[in-house]
Fold:
Amino acid sequence: MSGSRIIQDVVWQGQLCDCIVEGNRIAELRTASGDSRGGELVLLPGLIDCHTHLREPGQEHKEDITSGLAAAASGGFSSIFCMANTKPVNDNAAVTRTILSTATEGHPHGPALYPVGALSHGLAGKELAPMHELARAGCAAFSNDGVPVSDSGLMRRAMEYSADLRIPVINHCEDPSLAPEGVISEGPVSDRLGLRGVPSVSESIQVARDILLASYLDLPLHLAHISRRESVELINWAKNKGVPVTAETCPHYLLWSEERVAEYDPLAKVNPPLGSEDDVTALRQAVREGVIDILATDHAPHALFEKEAPISLAPNGISGLDTALSLCWTLVQDGVLTQQDLIRLWCRGPARIFGLRDNGFNSGDPADFILFDPRESWIPTPESMRSRGKNTPSLNTELPGRVQLNCRQGTPLYGEFPREAE
Structure:
């Protein structure tokens, strides 16, 4: 076939296959002869991250669009959504257009970038942002992420307007009045360290409110970075009742508990804070069973000097775009998740919730895919990470697997086609 590339002997869902790419589309995925154990590279659809913070405009010392997209490309992401807590806040069309033009002009062949518009003016939670204006400018979702919406009436109006626009609302579930100046989860570890704790009910109270609003209005709502067992139980109840609620969690809530901050480590300080071992167990079960629909990084980069402050003063956030797939691969190795789970959580689920087209490797599907080498390991260091944010608990820790090729619409974003595919 003219202009076609044949990528031979890759492993797709445990089967040895040849992937044929024609232009910017998948032409065919056909079974190859031989044992899947003979394949060196795992074939996956391009990952979709619906929750990142790229910091530009206004906080480029933490991250900018260039470095964020570079980290996304090397991490295996074909599409990412960037939250509105920039400076100035993305609560008007001018900021939205600036974000999009910076991405398209600087990275015409980079991961697709979808701005998330502010739900309220200045993220203040007092009055709605101009949602129609933001949608026309290119916002793909609305959220007050980082500053929870305590006004239930405002939240209702936001859900109603966004439903008219057919654009999802992503809500940050937290009641800050229960956790003023909280540093880590409230419990034995916070008591031992003498740090102000955040009670788990701070999250679950808002989850319950949002579920009740979604049920009353019969309108969809997406819940961000779920981290507690009580929240999982509420979401499970809601789904059994047919409430149109979806939810995400992050790799760090599946891997690390509050014990990770036992040495006052600010790299493990995040909001919501890491939970108990019981929370980790509940979240792992929830992602396996589909109670939690998707994974997202909540990529929150900071300059290292900011994270070098005492834990009570250091900012919240973990940088995740570089490391997410390798961290999740540790869960595959440990039997917590399967490769099919990764595809559902990072590809199929986000595409369904946010109205994107993903790659099912059917003829005519977009050629958005990655080749991942599970045999290769790497160590996240300030030099090896492409994000400006080096703030991850996995810094200087060996991780399994590396992306060898990230291809979007038939064009490599990172890496090169295998030689035999030329």
User: Anything to note?
Assistant: The longest strand covers residues 369-378. The chain has one domain: 47-357+387-396. The two ends are 12 Å apart (CA to CA). The chain has a mean pLDDT of 95.
